[in-house]
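ingest -> validate -> predict -> emit
validate: passed (alphabet ok, no gaps, 416 aa)
predict: started
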Amino acid sequence: MSALGANQRVNSARLWDALGEMALIGPGGAGGCNRQTLTDADGEGRHLFKRWCEAAGMTMGVDTMGNMFATRAGTDPAALPVYMGSHLDTQPTGGRYDGVLGVLGALEVVRTMNDLGIKTKHPIVVTNWTNEEGARFAPAMLASGVFAGLHTQDYAYNRTDMDGLRFGDELARIGWVGDEVVGSRKMHAMFELHIEQGPILEAEGKDIGVVTHGQGLWWLEITLTGRDAHTGSTPMNMRVNAGLGMARITERVHQIAMGHQPGAVGAVGQVKVFPNSRNVIPGKVIFTVDIRSPDQTKLDLMRGEVERAAHAVAAELGLGCSIEAVGHFDPVTFDAGLVKLVRGAAEKLGLSHMDIISGAGHDACWINRVAPTVMIMCPCVGGLSHNEAEEISPEWAAAGTDVLFHAVCEAAEVVG
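emit:
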């Protein structure tokens, strides 16, 4: 059992300052962040994180996917490390806390352990996973997916952004290709602290979400091909309008998700319209459908229904239609023993808590396949995320990090 008392907490002010300082790198236009993966801003954020970790006495390792691993030594060199962390990359119009809280909260845990002179049997590793968001290079959780064996490194390196730039080339350009073989590290446990990205914890007045499961997901990229034509001179009955097809499929996605309630969601996200001119009927549209559920049966049924609906709409309008699955993971059940540790830490600290299912995908969803894994969540204002207006309070950040601190110390076995 952990030797920590309930009065031992992280340094809330230091954590909040670190979150604010990281947010200055890749600032957004409306108070949030635009620190997309493998950009110059991402490289700058990585250097700051590395400096902070080394100042805290940790040694930094980097693998060939750019995943960063800062290690605090344990007393038993043979003991497998306890990992904690998340990601520093953001959406194009992202917030200050999505992913970043999990990385800098983990760093604060180590800083607090140093302050208190805490030693652990197991080494502790703070991790920054590359390209969790998938905003620039699909799919999401790309590097943790390679780590867990779901993707090959060649597949990841050959992913391209909207400008045709390759992941592998951009990783090299910013100087973060490490020398470790991806997935060669073994873990005793993995903890990921994250903001909820939904409204449940705030609405229920809970400090902590104990994450027991994660939703499964399909990202389907649909390409509709019609015919470019002048909007003013082409009769309505002679148009082959790819934009109209996308609109009808968007409505069908909503209807399909509503038809599988409760526990199912769906929407159209990224859209690329060609030629994207005011007076030209779209001849081609590429867009992604995001469907999710913690129920495997519902998830698979929705995928089939979306694909059938897309082909039916395309046939009705005379459009070409192709569909590619560009992202997927099955529903996740997190490690029962680690869930118990997180719940116990919240109770010991006197923090209100509830079990919760993660509505978003996270690196923990992939790492759960190769190591015991769990997530801890704190509320966010209005449930808003992937938005520059994303907000949490210093108290919520501290509460989640306190739970991480106590749970990790117990998993890593405090000695002395």
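Residues 160 and 166 are 4 Å apart (CA to CA).
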